[in-house]
Specification:
The complex is a heterotrimer of chains A (about 280), B (about 600) and C (about 300). With about 280 residues, chain A is mainly α. Chain A has eleven helices and no strands. Chain B is α/β, with parallel strands linked by helices and about 600 residues long. In chain B, a hairpin with a 2-residue loop joins strand 14 and strand 15. In chain B, helix 5 packs parallel to helix 8 and helix 6 packs across helix 8. The radius of gyration of chain B is 26 Å and the shape is globular. Classes of the chains: A mainly alpha (about 280), B alpha/beta (about 600), C mainly alpha (about 300). Chains in contact: A-B, A-C, B-C. At the A-C interface, helix 5, helix 6, helix 9, helix 10 and helix 11 of A face helix 1, helix 6, helix 7, helix 10 and helix 11 of C.
């Protein structure tokens, strides 16, 4: 019979969770211990081995400069896993503060803030980032700040919505009757109850951040040139697609695997909360 | 030969978690009963006892995780074995169910008439015939202007009207078995009375077997011939209503009956209460020094009038009950007094001094004097806090001198609960914490907004008794807001009756109950009366529940539209005078209800 | 309506502000480092860059509203034709993608929701998530490897000479990203609707499963995902930058990217503004559809 909730098969969900966590762990390890894990230096060139097919010595083959693709892929984890968490942290802090304030006070502040957020929202994602990086130059700081600001509106929106709901709850009114300060109400009454939503949203934004960083790198606006960004690797080797597909495939799959595993993680967290 | 026979029905929910936890008791455990054609069996028990599960099991509408065993036989058909097309056929012609919360039982994107017609079309009628029959069914359920209602969407009609639609859908099936699962929970008292009357009239026509599920023993008495009492999935007692409710044999039934406050009792003659809390001789404060005075309070929400020139006075240590239906403005008034809602106009005086209407502007001493106990136990406490923290914070901010343990003990909370997260407590326990929180300091007035409405009947009585005990012990004044007149008359010293934003009657409890009554008070009293229903004519009500009205309409009496005793040409056009009767009652009405003690004074004044 | 206009106005300020924070001198950048100071000053005056920022903004906004979008710094052509022609090509791509996404996502989401908890549902959900999570350039590159390099079925770029065949891969790319998200939204909505009491009421009337889904589940489940469609269009447009770059398609995305990299302000400003307007219009449209679908919004209280 349709629709009536069939028994949830938890073992299936666990499998996806395990895969996601494993993949994520692999990339985190790569970011932290690139030096130990990569068999070659990512920039070491072996001119006689240009475009070598994948083999036992070079698991992912070599590129046009004779560089070991495997090592470059491992090294590529670091830039992305440095910038993404920082940007999301910035966005979470800023978004939570803004969301709490606009959600709790409402009124004119809220309307104005919402209008401003909305005007950001009608620009397609990445536009502000593209503009900013193109105009301000490529650097880690720029990326962190730009992405942080780009994600702030979304987190603000989530926090604001959750705050609106909590604000109407009777325990908040009881706090007002006690004469509690606004800071207390926001921090001790409301925030603990919305923390879960914030975590879910932040994890989703983390996946988004990795997505954006890789895409920006692809279109030539990643971190400083020369850094082994996966996106940049794909872009640089696009022309070699016909005869050296490995130079493109592996970095591309690396990006996809990281974004997917973080997204799966976010999904699992969300389901756990609503269970 | 009974029409419906249920034998050894057992329902257990299978889930991976329960499998791991060991043996979990089934939701329904070996239940057997029978219902004859034309008979109504009441299935009564507290929340969680499994009565709804039984209904859904019979309806064959349980989730796949439920394991059902036992026999269900309706008119010769073994219901448990039906499936697919034969099950659908059975639903089409033999079975109908009416649930609580009619709002969610109706498809919000489909017109009401179409939803009724759907039942008929599936039985074989063509579109036009089905539409016409749907309209005539709406007429049968006493809906005014059925053709117009049929074209409306569910959100455009009131709760009472929605339930009539659901009943019409059930009628359309002409079932052999009708299951009613708490059909009037959530409806106002007067609407409830109409719906129950409707059900009583219709079941006579249908000669179906009726299963009436409820937690309210009063309803069982009113509507059923036989009753079965359920606890934790098992039937503890069953038999004719007269026997079971008057002379119960099982201990649980006795408990249920004892716990509930016998109708008509007040705190003065409640034996159970007075055994624990001897009555203190209450010294009335001198008139003219009230604790709280509210005057000319006006509050509009857009076009809706919540308060229309309200006047109220509460003396120290007094319990004032504020009663009215949804939309009457009683909650708004309570919130205005606490400062949570700011009125458009009006003045509030505490011990003679004018205080700010906005909570944020009140001095802390004023704020501490007026506290509140809220309605919904689930949202009244922060689920992330522990009980101990809640009480500690309250003692700190409200200037209480007791310790956390003492405060908890006074509300019958034990030490073990102090360390728990509030989300793990039961409804009754949560309300105790909420009450403890409100009286932690030296509040002079506590506004209680429907504090027991969301609780089980047996728990209600305990909380009410606790409130009385605390109130008398600490000499706190209470403003007890409720839609339930029975509860209000139990605890209050004075009662104020509210309708559409005005207090239409007010006075000492005995005087309000004895009469003469404002016509609305009379209606409320009749609705809360638990005697058996009389078979009378069925009047057609055009206004469903909810008494809120739009601004700008008020010229005459607010109750004029609904009043069965209205005087044509007078009540709708002229504001009613305020009469002060010698019993202490203040009534706003054109009717001549008794000698007005002010008449003599006015007469004297006129002569001078 | 007024709210939307206000938002657009704020966006225009935002765009103008963002594009004017370039460090350095625009005129000098155009003319090159060796140009003389007089030439640079003359160029600045010619471009109107010597006026105050507010005057510049007003003049730009006025021009924009009148249809005069200036001339490209780098290409010299009038910006309006440039932007509109590129926009047209992008819209073509986007609308085809959308036309594929909507029925596919609705169908899959409905299926997953109705079969909620089963293997089918799980598969659809996970695949949907993978789709959303895969950046366009990744899926694009993988598709290219498969269809263009290995199998040689489809051309590797979408330039005009390849005609419709050239559009297939870019469309699939865009579709993959959007379908996942909308499918999951629809599924969540269907699951929530199935748990509603009125679905039980309807089932207990004895109607067929098909009628149940059609009349009671479908309409009520679609209300929320419709707004998701509006949000998705925005992501789709965002994806255009990457897809157009990857497949050499002369759409608004690649125009924007080029203008940003070359600091071609008029083109950049106009293109961004136009994109913002298009997205705003889709929001307005989805709001209207939402209101039409939900009688509670459309008809309101009638007591």
């Amino acid at each position: 019979m349709i629709g009536l909730r069939a028994a949830r098969d938890p073992s299936r969900r666990r499998v996806t969770l395990v895969i996601a966590v494993t993949v994520l762990a692999v990339w985190i390890a790569s970011a932290l211990f690139a030096g130990l894990l990569a068999p070659f230096s990512p920039s070491a060139q072996l001119p006689r081995l240009k475009f070598a097919d994948p083999s036992v010595h070079h698991l992912f083959g070599t590129d046009g400069f004779g560089r070991d693709v495997f090592s470059r892929v491992i090294a590529g984890a670091r830039p992305v896993l440095t910038i993404a968490p920082l940007a999301v942290l910035l966005a979470t802090v800023a978004g939570t503060v803004l969301g709490l304030i606009t959600g709790y006070f409402g009124g004119l502040t809220d309307s104005i803030a919402m209008k401003i957020l909305q005007s950001f929202a009608i620009l397609p994602p990445l536009f502000p980032a593209v503009l900013a990086v193109a105009l301000l130059g490529r650097s880690t700081t720029v990326l962190v700040v730009v992405l942080g600001f780009a994600f702030t509106p979304l987190i603000t929106w989530t926090v604001r919505s959750a705050t609106l709901v909590e604000r109407e709850k009777q325990f908040v009114e009881a706090a007002r009757l006690r004469g509690e300060s606004t800071a207390y109400i926001l921090g001790r009454e409301i925030l603990p109850n919305i923390a879960g939503s914030i975590i879910v949203e932040s994890t989703v934004r983390l996946a988004d951040a990795v997505f954006s960083i890789a895409t920006l790198a692809f279109i030539g606006l990643g971190a400083a040139p020369g850094s082994p960004d996966w996106g940049a690797q794909v872009a640089d080797n696009r022309v070699n697609l016909q005869f050296a597909w490995w130079t493109v495939l592996f970095p591309a799959v690396a990006v996809a695997s990281l974004v997917i595993s973080v997204s799966l993680l976010a999904d699992v967290i969300r389901e756990r909360r609503s269970a | 030969m009974s029409l419906l026979t249920v034998a050894d029905l057992t329902v257990a929910y299978r889930s991976p978690r329960s499998a791991a936890a060991g043996v979990v008791p089934p939701a329904v455990d070996g239940v057997s009963f029978h219902v004859d054609a034309g008979e109504t069996l009441g299935l009564v028990g507290e929340s969680g006892c499994g009565k709804s599960t039984i209904a859904l099991a019979i309806a064959r509408s349980l989730p796949p995780t439920a394991r059902v065993s036992g026999r269900i036989n309706l008119g010769g058909t073994d219901v448990a074995t039906l499936a697919g097309a034969s099950l659908r056929q059975w639903w089409r012609s033999d079975f109908a169910m009416v649930y609580q919360e009619p709002q969610s039982a109706l498809n919000p994107t489909m017109r009401v008439g179409a939803q009724i017609a759907e039942v008929l079309r599936v039985k074989g009628l063509d579109r036009q015939a089905a539409d016409r029959e749907a309209i005539s069914l709406l007429e049968r359920v006493a809906m005014a202007d059925p053709a117009a209602i049929a074209r409306r969407y569910p959100h455009q009609i009131s709760g009472g009207q929605q339930q009539r639609v659901v009943i019409a859908m059930a009628l359309a099936i002409r079932p052999q078995l009708l299951v009613l699962d708490e059909p009037t929970t959530g409806l106002d008292a007067t609407v409830e009375r109409e719906i129950l009357q409707l059900i009583a009239d219709l079941r006579a026509e249908l000669s179906a077997a009726v299963l009436f599920i409820t937690h309210d023993l009063g309803l069982v008495e009113r509507m059923c011939e036989r009753v079965a009492v359920l606890q934790a999935g098992q039937i503890k007692e069953h038999g004719p209503v007269a026997n079971v409710l008057v002379a119960p044999t099982h201990e649980y039934t006795r408990e249920l009956l004892a716990c509930a406050i016998p109708p008509g009792r007040t705190k003065h003659n409640d034996a159970v209460l007075r055994a624990a809390v001897p009555e203190i001789e209450h010294v009335p404060t001198a008139a003219g020094s009230p604790l709280l005075e509210v005057s000319n309070v006006v509050k509009h929400y857009g076009a809706v009038v919540a308060s229309d020139g309200v006047r109220l006075r509460i003396d120290a240590g007094q319990v004032v009950g504020l009663v009215g239906e949804s939309g009457s403005g009683k909650t708004t008034l309570g919130r205005i007094i606490t400062g949570l809602t700011v009125p458009d106009e009006g003045e509030i005086r505490l011990r003679g001094e004018v205080i700010a209407t906005d909570l944020a502007r009140r001095r802390s001493a004023v704020r501490r004097s007026i506290q509140m106990v809220f309605q919904s136990p689930d949202s009244t406490l922060n689920p992330r806090h522990r009980v101990r923290d809640v009480l500690k914070r309250a003692l700190l901010k409200l200037g209480g001198s007791r310790t956390v343990e003492q405060l908890a003990a006074s509300c019958r909370l034990d030490a073990q609960q102090l360390g728990q997260l509030t989300s793990t407590l039961s409804g009754g326990q949560k309300q105790r914490v909420a009450i403890a929180r409100a009286i932690a300091g030296d509040a002079a007035l506590v506004v209680c907004d429907e504090p027991v409405s969301a609780l089980d009947v047996s728990v209600q009585a305990t909380i009410l008794r606790l409130l009385v005990e605390l109130q008398e012990h600490r000499d706190v004044a209470l403003l007890f807001v409720s839609h339930d007149l029975a509860v209000v008359r139990y605890l209050s010293d004075r009662i104020a009756v509210m309708y559409a934003g005005r207090i239409v009657e007010e006075g000492p409890t005995e005087a309000v109950l004895a009469g003469p009554h404002h016509p609305y008070t009379a209606e409320l009293l009749a609705a809360s009366d638990h005697r058996a229903m009389d078979t009378g004519s069925r009047p057609v009500f055009s206004a469903g529940g909810g008494t809120a009205r739009s601004a700008g309409e008020r010229i005459g009496c607010v109750f004029a539209d609904r009043c069965p005793q209205r005087i044509e040409g007078l009540c709708a056009t002229t504001a009613p005078p305020v009469r002060h009767l010698d019993t202490g009652l203040r009534i706003e009405c054109h009717l001549d209800l008794g000698p007005d003690i002010d008449d003599e004074v006015a007469g004297e004044a006129a002569r001078i | 309506m007024g709210g939307f206009l206000l938002t657009l106005a704020l966006t225009s300020i935002l765009i103008f502000a963002l594009t004017n924070v370039i460090p350095g001198d625009v005129a000098r950048r155009i003319l090159g480092r060796e140009a003389s100071q007089e030439a640079v000053n003359a160029k600045r005056a010619e471009l109107g860059l010597d006026r105050s920022i507010l005057v510049q903004y007003r003049s730009w906004l006025g021009g924009f509203l009148r249809g005069d979008w200036g001339k490209s710094y780098t290409k010299g052509e009038p910006v309006r034709e440039l932007v509109l022609s590129h926009l047209g090509r992008s819209l073509e791509l986007g609308l085809i993608a959308f036309a594929v996404v909507v029925p596919v996502a609705l169908g899959l989401g409905l299926l997953a929701g109705l079969r909620n908890g089963t293997r089918t549902d799980r598969a659809i959900t996970v695949l949907g998530l993978c789709g959303t999570a895969t950046p366009e350039f990744v899926s694009g590159v993988l598709l290219l490897i498969l269809f263009s390099v290995r199998l040689n079925w489809l051309p590797s770029s979408a330039r005009d000479e390849y005609g419709l065949k050239g559009l297939v891969l870019p469309v699939i790319c865009l579709v993959i990203v959007c379908v996942g998200y909308i499918t999951r939204m629809v599924r969540a909505s269907v699951v929530a609707t199935l748990e509603r009491p009125y679905v039980r009421t309807a089932r207990l009337k004895g109607i067929t499963t098909a009628a149940l889904v059609r009349r009671h589940v479908l309409r009520n489940s679609l209300v929320v995902p419709v707004t998701a469609l509006g949000v998705q269009l925005r992501y789709l447009i965002g994806g255009l930058i990457t897809v157009e770059l990857l497949f050499n398609y002369a759409g608004i995305g690649s125009l924007l990217l080029g203008a940003a990299q070359e600091k071609d302000l008029p083109t950049l400003q106009a293109a961004t503004m136009v994109t913002g307007v298009v997205i705003m219009l889709t929001f307005v449209l989805t709001d209207a559809i939402y209101a039409w679908l939900d009688p509670r919004v459309r008809v309101g209280k009638a007591r």
